[in-house]
Amino acid sequence: MPRFDRSHTDDLAAYIKASPTPYHACAEAGRRLETAGFVRLGEADEWPADPGGYYTVRDGSIIAWRINDDAYDAFRIFGAHTDTPTFKVKPRPDTGSAGWKQVAVEVYGGVPHQTWLDRDLSVAGRLVMRDGTEVLVHVDRPLLRVPRLAIHLDRGANEGQKLNAQSQLTPIWGLGEPYEGEFIEFIAAEAGVDAADVFGHDLFTVALDEPAYLGKDEELFAAWRLDNLTSTHAGLAALIAAEDTGTRVPVLASFNYEEIGSMTYSGAQSPFLESVLHRLMGDDFETYARAIAASAMMSSDTGNAIHPNYQEKHEPGHRPIPGKGPMIKVSANQRYASGAEEQALFRRSAEAAGIPWQTYVNRNDIPGGTTIGPISGTQLGMLTVDVGLPILSMHSARELCGAEDPGLLADLALGLFTH
C-alpha cells in the first residue's frame, strides 16, 4: 500500500483527465478557482483593486493572483506551461489512401514518434465560431490510431527505424473515401454546433490511457501531460491555499506554446504577464519598478530523472530520482535561470515547506532543453529560479514520476508564496 497521503496526486489525475489541451487546462483551472471564490476578469474590462482572488485567460494561457492585503508591494510568481508535445490537426484534415480514411496532422513540439504508434487516440481542442466565441470539444473515446508497420514487412524495425513525419505518422480513423469537410463536420457534431459556423480550429491528438499508480507500493505515477500539468496543478493548489501572504501577491502564470518556443501573443515571451503585473501596480512606473525589484519568480517544469538503463546520459555528480522531492535546475549557460541568488530563493522556499530537494545539471556534452524561466526573467527583469519534478519518458505519450512528488512540488510553491 502507498506510504503517503495520495490525495494531491489523485486530484492531479483528475485534473489531467479534465485537461487534454491547454484550453481545457485553463477552463478546468478556472472552474477550480471560481469554486474557491476567485473571479474571472476580461482583459478589456476595468479591473478591481480590492483584495480577493482573480484570474484572466488568453489563448490557452492563464494568470491568476490573490490580493491578501490592501498595501501590496511585491509579487511571488509560480510559472508553468499548459501545452504538451503531440500532433495538431491541419487546417484541411481530410485525407486518406488505399481505402483508409485518415486525418492530416502536424508535429507539435518535440514528439518522440515511436511512443504514439499503435495507441488508441482521441481528439480535443477548441472551435472558434463565426461570431468569435470559443467552444471546447473533447471526443473522449478511441477515434484515431497511427498503425505501426508489421515487423514481417520491416525486418529492421528493431534497428533504429526513423519515421517520416509527413508520410508515416498520419492516423487512420475509418474506411472508405474521405471527402472535404468530413472531419470538421464530425467534430462540430460532437461539440453540438453547426459545422458551417466553425471558422477556425485548434485540435490535437490525445492519449487516452488513464493515469495510474505503478509498483508494489504504488510509489510511481504514470500519465500523459505530466509535462507540465504537474506544475500548473501544483501552482493552482498552492495559490488557492495561500491565504496569508501579507503585502506580497502570489501569482500563478501558466503559459501555452512553451513546447514550441513561447513566441506568441500569449506565450511566456509575450507581454501578457508584464501587462497583468503593470495593471495590478497602477500607472506609476516608480511603484512598479520597486515592486519588480522586490519580487521573485519560480519557473517550474519537469526535468529528467536518472534513467537506470542509460546512466551514461546523465551528469554523474547530479542524479535526481523520483521520490526525493523537487529539484533545482542549474545551467552555467542560463538555459535554466538559476544562479547563487536563485539557489538561495529555492532553498528558503523548500526549507519553509519542510520538504526534501535535489539538484539537476545537464552533462557538458548534452545541453538539454530550456524553460520559460530565462524568458520570463529577461522579460520582467525579475529574480527567477528554475525548478521541477524528475520524470522518465519526458514528452512521451506516457510519462512517469514519483507518486509523492507532485504534492511536494505544491508544498514548494506554497513555500514560495508564504515565506
UniProtKB/TrEMBL annotation:
<dbReference type="InterPro" id="IPR001948">
    <property type="entry name" value="Peptidase_M18"/>
</dbReference>
<dbReference type="Pfam" id="PF02127">
    <property type="entry name" value="Peptidase_M18"/>
</dbReference>
<keyword id="KW-0479">Metal-binding</keyword>
<protein>
    <recommendedName>
        <fullName>M18 family aminopeptidase</fullName>
        <ecNumber>3.4.11.-</ecNumber>
    </recommendedName>
</protein>
<dbReference type="GO" id="GO:0008270">
    <property type="term" value="F:zinc ion binding"/>
</dbReference>
<dbReference type="GO" id="GO:0004177">
    <property type="term" value="F:aminopeptidase activity"/>
</dbReference>
<keyword id="KW-0862">Zinc</keyword>
<dbReference type="GO" id="GO:0008237">
    <property type="term" value="F:metallopeptidase activity"/>
</dbReference>
<dbReference type="InterPro" id="IPR023358">
    <property type="entry name" value="Peptidase_M18_dom2"/>
</dbReference>
<dbReference type="GO" id="GO:0006508">
    <property type="term" value="P:proteolysis"/>
</dbReference>
<keyword id="KW-0031">Aminopeptidase</keyword>
<comment type="similarity">
    <text>Belongs to the peptidase M18 family.</text>
</comment>
<keyword id="KW-0378">Hydrolase</keyword>
<keyword id="KW-0645">Protease</keyword>
<dbReference type="GO" id="GO:0005737">
    <property type="term" value="C:cytoplasm"/>
</dbReference>
<keyword id="KW-0482">Metalloprotease</keyword>
